[in-house]
Amino acid sequence: MGIEYLGLSRIKGPLVAIDGVKGAAYDEIVELRVDDDARTKKLGKIIEVYEDKAVIQIFEGSENLSLLNTHTKFTGHPLEFPLSMDILGRTFDGIGRPIDGLGTIEPECKRDVNGKPLNPVEREYPRNYIRTGISAIDGLTTLIRGQKLPIFSGNGLPHDRLAAQIVKQASLGDDSDDELVVIFAAMGVKYDVAEFFRRTFEESGVLNHVVMFLNLANDPVVERLITPKVALTAAEYLAFDKGKHVLVILTDMTSFAEAMREVSSSKGEIPSRKGYPGYLYSELAAIYERAGIVKNSTGSVTQIPILTMPNDDITHPIPDLTGYITEGQIVLDRGLHGQSIYPPINVLPSLSRLMKDGIGEGYTREDHQSVANQLFSSYAKVGDARALASVIGEDELSASDKKYLEFGKAFEKEFVSQTETENRDVITTLDIGWKLLHMLPKEELDRIDTKLIEKYY
Question: How many angstroms separate the CA atoms of 296 and 395, rounded?
Fold first, then answer.
């Protein structure tokens, strides 16, 4: 039975302090209410303990709380999320309470949302790919099961549409009968964006294997710090207890980081780069490193965090630190978006560091890596040809450079660009790649083995 205290010593923003406490623990959940009014009940967690003092972070904000007659009950445990297979097809708020009107979950077990560190020795190296149906991802920055592959976007770019398309189309490939489960967590999104996701999943018939966690823009900021942790707790249960392959999409990690900056400022902590707390790296790592495959488990947790880069600055602390922790990135480009190319993926700064281990013979097709290398190399030369054309004019270019300009336009229009309902398999993607490489002379294909050229060119 939890201990209950009357009165608070201080209220400051989403933080309250209480004196004279005994046995309080870091991350412990507390319940607060004014007098016996159940309508004022709020949840919070202890973020600081010093001697007999405790600082509590209130999820719903500290409005309507009183210094004199607030009752604070210490539960004796961290925030836990009730879990069973019934969570599939359900929608929850930012801290895991059902908001779809279908009632509470009858739990098989409850888990601490903070998770437990995964023993590195127990990890298995990620193999096999996840098919998204999007050529620029499947062909050139292939997503591997157990990988964390972020999408770097910017304000106004169609990352929401891309996320919804990945949820609708993602599968474990043509040779697998296993179902891919999707955990979708949104932080600080507007109501119309949340409704777009819900409606899209419902209309496409994928809602029954999607679990949604929604923290809206008008929901408490502090909830955003919990949302990805609750989502990953559900993912770990489905993957490591139930043997499912789980894809976790987290949008937008910039909202998460800004919520952390706001709470850190309320606590009076010394800021680091751009005002973010010095522990931003370790907090991001604690979330991203919950992806992976564990020995003796048939399941996997794969992550696609989405973050909007402030001012499209890839050196901003959030994308910068994310790049250190994750295994590559998919970069959306404003220039391509301006040309009405969807998805506007800029393939040159995009990469997947684990791609080589989940493609090729036995996974996709023997020529996959060679085609990807050649397309990267040829598209890089397109950039050089365009830069030269902007100086001396297109008419003065050599025949080779003119070929590369044609290749570049065709590559963006036929390979990168596709509709939101177009679900390409990997073989189709590779065939489009060969069709485009056919525009270039054979002697320019210096990244592909001659045997593959003879077979596929």
Answer: 62
